[in-house]
Amino acid sequence: MAKNGNGEGSIYEHKRNGKRVGYRGAYTVYTAEGPKRRYISGKTREEVRQ
């Protein structure tokens, strides 16, 4: 797997039972209670990046 590009954040392969089923990404949302981590899933790396 290649390195992430600038601004991509945390995008990695999502595996279930050892098989790749897509990609997951994580980003941070800042709320009044403090920072929260949110996740998004998609079939392709490009879909998650957008």
Instruction: Enumerate the strands of the largest sheet in spatial order, edge to edge or round the barrel.
Output: 1-2-3
The overall number of domains is: 1
Task: Give the overall average pLDDT.
Answer: 83
End-to-end C-alpha gap: 19 Å
Order of helices and strands: EEEH
Number of beta strands: 3
Low-confidence stretches: none
Describe the structure.
With 50 residues, the protein is mostly beta strands. The chain has one domain. It has one helix and three strands, in the order E-E-E-H. The protein has one helix at residues 45-49; strands spanning 10-16, 19-31, 34-42. Strands 1-2-3 form a three-stranded antiparallel sheet. Strand 1 and strand 2 (19-31) form a beta hairpin. The longest helix has 5 residues, at 45-49. The protein is globular, with a radius of gyration of 12 Å. The model has no long low-confidence stretch (mean pLDDT 83).
Name the features.
1 helix, mainly beta, single chain, globular, 50 residues
Task: Describe, in short, the structure shown.
Helices cover 10% and strands 58% of the residues. It is built from 1 helix and 3 strands.
List the topology elements.
Elements: E1 10-16, E2 19-31, E3 34-42, H1 45-49
Antiparallel strand pairs: 1-2, 2-3
